[in-house]
Amino acid sequence: MTVAHHTVRSWAAHEQHSKHDELAWKLAGVAFAAPPEDAVADMVVNRLIDNTGVAMAALNRAPVTAAREQALAFSRAGGATLFGVSRFARVDAAWAAWANSVAVRELDFHDTYLAADYSHPADNIPALLAVAQQCGSSGQALLRAIAIAYEVQIALTRGICLHAHKIDHIAHLGASVAVGLGALLGLDRDVIYQAVQHAVHVSCTTRQSRKGHISNWKAFAPAHAAKLAVEAVDRAMRGQTSPSPIYEGEDGVIARLLGGVGQAYDIQLPEEGAPVRSILESYTKAHSAEYQSQALIDLALRMRGRITDLEKIAAITIHTSHHTHYVIGSGAGDPQKMDPQASRETLDHSIMYIFAVALEDGEWHHEKSYLPARATRSATVRLWHKVSTLEDAGWTARYHATDPFERAFGGRVEIQMKDGSRIEDELAVADAHPAGAAPFGRPEYIGKFKSLTDGFLSISAQDRFLASAQALNSLKETQLDALMPELPSSDLHRCNRKGIF
């Protein structure tokens, strides 16, 4: 893929620039990319399968139930459908994007891309699918729009670190959904440009959502950005303008929220009209936990066979990257990460807890591994409190490596035994990573989907969904409903509290 580098910085009010020099305009141009190559189209299908499996497995969890009931209050003839809900109960696309995004994100079990910042690019898919249903788009148009949205979010994640300034990564999602919708609907570039600026302006939030006692909002955060982006596109389509230039302005995102005056960012985008390929650099999860724990879970499963008695462990030290140490490790300074009463969302951001449980159980399960009874087990708490992390410059360098074959998100583990002996091992990437020991291909995505939906989605319903998903590129406008599996209404829990809607 031919790449164009765009230098982005804040501009003083007196500096004169054309809108064609602005990052929002450059991002809008990605909407006009060439049709996806076969490998990209295949990966879009993989991620659609992946999203649906993790969403269906989360349907009766409290955040998903609440979001679903909010959405059902906004019924609309000819609107979009919700995961698990009858296709006859249609809702406004913005609210479908909201509820379906929460379902996808709740288990922290879908795909990831890590670079200067963090992202879960499959968060783009629910909003694009909802609008495609409501607006009568084809499967081919949806596939292309998904690939384009991935390209934008990954480019921004690669080039602009929001985390360093404690801004949550959903600010990049707002832009990518807006561009993806522009591609889906065939909008003029100026309309997409306005929508990007609106979406970015309103989706900049702080990272307190991922700090300390992590709440249910972690599942809602991408839904918030996606819904705002749908609304931004609608507003731009009606001829309305947005804060400009949103990135470069004297009071814009760079000047006031990121690096400030003098800070420049390099954004790499495909040459205009070229195909997009960045989805191939992203990766899914084999374990339901923060991505930076994936390789370390695999390492714990590998190392446990060398330990006959876990009570004889004196200390466990995980040498890892800056991001892993400070986000999910002891470098975060969050006492909640060591608290047996912590929320599931907090535990899935505690590598100390995750490594201890994987070492004890020899497996990782999206529900059982987080149960309160599991987290409060006395032997687990003892082992958990022996685990700490340290930043290692070598692992930090590999985390930020530009060569995807050198880039790594794992670490080295030292287990100090009470008798003075030491057990050491390291793993650079998760087994499921494209460069890992057991990389995911279509059979693994299908296997993950089936394992997550077994027991409540019939085999025939699984097969119908998989057939439709794998035929995405040829689905007609009336066939997108097949991408949203249904359950009997009696199988869906209700929220036990009333709201406004």
Summarize the entry for a quick read.
With 501 residues, the protein is α+β, with helices and mostly antiparallel strands. It is built from 19 helices and nine strands.
Describe this structure in words.
It is built from 19 helices and nine strands. It is α+β, with helices and mostly antiparallel strands and 501 residues long. It folds into two domains: 3-281, 2-methylcitrate dehydratase PrpD (Orthogonal Bundle); 291-427, 2-methylcitrate dehydratase PrpD (60s Ribosomal Protein L30, Chain: A, 2-Layer Sandwich). The strands form three sheets. Strands 7-6-8-9 form a four-stranded mixed sheet. A two-stranded antiparallel ribbon has the order 1-5. The chain has a two-stranded antiparallel sheet with strand order 3-4. A hairpin with a 4-residue loop joins strand 8 and strand 9. Helix 1 (23-29) crosses helix 8 (189-202) and helix 5 (124-135) packs antiparallel against helix 6 (139-159). It is globular, with a radius of gyration of 22 Å. The mean pLDDT is 96. This is 2-methylcitrate dehydratase. Residues 287-473 form the MmgE/PrpD C-terminal domain.
